[in-house]
Design a protein that fits this description.
With about 325 residues, the protein is an alpha/beta fold. The chain has a domain at about 5-170 and about 210-240 and about 275-290: NAD(P)-binding Rossmann-like Domain (Rossmann fold, 3-Layer(aba) Sandwich), CATH 3.40.50. Helices cover about 40% and strands about 15% of the residues. The chain is built from eleven helices and eleven strands. The chain has a six-stranded parallel sheet with strand order 2-1-3-4-5-9, with helices on both faces. α2 crosses α4. The longest helix has 21 residues, at about 75-95.
């Protein structure tokens, strides 16, 4: 039981989802914040902020991330800022005597040729995909950091690995959004034009996506029940091809599927990166929201909020 839980990345999808899930935990007080409240890349500012909040637990959901265009154009920024944030949070937790800390990793950190399904122990096997190597290495570094801080300082810190996230409060900003929110925005904005909608690749690659609300519930379960230096996959393993996902988004938004054009001359990315979440599911008995239902909720939220200043990061 943790009376006060501090959530970083409060303006992002996961941070918002955790705060929404807080209603099911009235015994705890959740406090979220964003970069305007505290610059997590600044160690001393972070320590001072956490000391002032005096939390019992920290969920580190903040991260600098984006789509392929963003990752390839700002690799140094992605590596630097994510590493600085990780160590600022760990040091703040250590210095302030925080009882438990959750660090967030990503399946994007694994090597392109990792055996499938991907298991947690494959984290340091092979070189990550060239398009996101800097973000991948920043996330990989969290794994030895957890072990080192647990060993030397005895702090209770765990690492949870998520895959592609979508849901309410996703980042829909052009050039930064990952596939699902990017397509939701494109389809919504072009729904009445009648023109073809071009999607890169032939649509065959397979992808796993997890609904943000599920990840919030998974994080809160682990906060109370998981205490191990080994990282843990908590994402859904429901898998769909890019074509299937695009068609589901078109159906949900109200776009004629005949308008979708898959350009096979463009790069399609890694064909498949399925994961093994059996350790987590075996421990928790967790049940995930079906992708199509999570998509319906995401589209409904976007349709209701896209026009509100500051509500969708356009």
């Amino acid at each position: 039981m943790y009376e006060k839980i501090l959530v970083t990345g409060g303006t992002g999808l996961l941070g918002h989802a955790i705060m929404a899930a807080a209603d099911a935990h009235p015994e705890s007080r959740f406090v979220s914040f964003g970069s305007k409240d505290c610059d997590l890349t600044n160690l001393e500012e972070t320590v001072e902020f956490v000391a002032g909040q005096r939390p019992d637990a920290i969920i580190h959901a903040a991260a600098l991330a984006g789509g392929v265009q963003y990752s390839t154009s700002r690799p140094a920024t992605l590596l630097r800022d994510n590493v600085l944030m990780s160590f600022s949070v760990l040091e703040a937790a250590r210095r302030c005597g925080v009882k438990k800390t959750i660090m967030t990793l990503s399946t994007g950190m694994y090597a392109a040729d990792t055996p499938l399904p991907i298991k947690e122990e494959y984290i340091h096997d092979g070189y990550p995909h060239e398009s996101n190597y800097s973000y991948a290495f920043a996330k990989r570094l969290i794994d030895p950091s957890i072990k080192a801080y647990r060993t030397e300082y005895g702090i209770n810190v765990i690492g949870l690995v998520v895959n592609g996230l979508f849901g309410e409060n996703a980042n829909f900003r052009l050039g930064e959004a990952v596939m699902v929110p990017a397509l939701v925005r494109r389809f919504f904005e072009q729904r009445d034009s009648g023109a073809p909608i071009v999607i890169w690749g032939d649509g065959s690659p397979l992808r796993e996506y997890s609904y943000g609300g599920d990840m919030a519930r998974a994080f809160l379960w682990c906060l109370e029940n998981y205490d191990d230096s080994r990282i843990l996959h908590v994402g859904s393993t429901e898998e769909h091809s890019v074509r299937e996902i695009a068609l589901m988004i078109a159906e949900t938004v109200g776009v004629d599927p005949e308008r979708l054009v898959f350009d096979a001359s463009k790069p399609a990315g890694i064909f498949r990166k399925s994961t093994d979440n059996s350790r987590f599911v075996g421990l928790s008995g967790f049940r995930y929201t079906p992708f199509k239902e999570g998509l319906r909720r995401t589209v409904a939220w976007f349709q209701q909020n896209h026009h509100r200043p500051g509500c969708v990061r356009l």
